[in-house]
Design a protein that fits this description.
Strand order of the largest sheet: 1-2-3
CATH architecture of the largest domain: Orthogonal Bundle
Number of domains: 3
Radius of gyration: 25 Å
Strand content: 5-15%
Oligomer: single chain
CATH superfamily of the largest domain: Intergrase catalytic core
Number of helices: 12
Number of strands: 6
CATH class of the largest domain: Mainly Alpha
Order of helices and strands: EEEHHHHHHHHEEHEHHH
Structural class: mainly alpha
Shape: globular
Amino acid sequence: MRQPKPWYRKQTDSWYVQIGPKQHLLAKGKSSEKAAYELYHRLMAETKPVEPDNITVAKLCDLLLDWSEKHNARETFEWHRTFLQEFCSTHGDKPATAVIPHHLTTWLDAHPAWKAGRRHATYCVKRAFAWAVAQGLLAKSPFPGVKVGRANRREHLLSKEDRERILAAVPDRAFREFLTALQETGCRPSEVARVTAADLDLAAGLWVLATHKTAKKTGRPRIVYLTPTMVELSRRLAAEHPEGPIFRTHRGKRPWQRNAIRCRFRRLRERLSDLGPVTSYLVSVR
């Protein structure tokens, strides 16, 4: 394939190069040829395709994450990134062709605190290598025989009294409202955290969520039917925050982020240790 070369355009007094479908401005002025070629060589190095089977684990995971960010929901992309970055901190420098199932097993065993996380981590690593095979970057994946494992059933469900105790243990209005939304809608924490005034159809008693986990797969919004409690709560919060997410931290400036939610639930578990492993997903189960 013919390699692109920089050229000078007199009309704009500038140097350009065409790489694929995109035209890049390299430098202004006819005398800037040297600077234009320096930028050209950097661009060519960055856009040079990866040779199949000549790729590190870190590069493989970076490519998968680039693809995931464009084609998956934000929640799925963040899920991939969390576990793949952790895997790369241990095995990122290895050639992808040198990885064997034992590397995955010992990495998982180094995180004994992971419960459901072990299953999720296994899936993410297997997904990255399977994607690389599908893209022609690897001849085969080292993990076809590695089982993801079954999801654990939620044996423990919260009673009405448990839920009342949880809400009573929360000192600030903002987090109580967030927990109320989880309980009343059954939505995922990330879905509640993203709701804006534009997502509300209060006349019909609905949240209409264009952004959700399966949006790119289904091509349809997620419809959430609201209880009277949630209609009134949504109306009040939308009036307070007509722009951006309506559920915000107690200072009213920031929407709820994953780490803030995790920290708040950790404190709840410390206060209500007799309730067992209270999590945001458990609270949302109705």
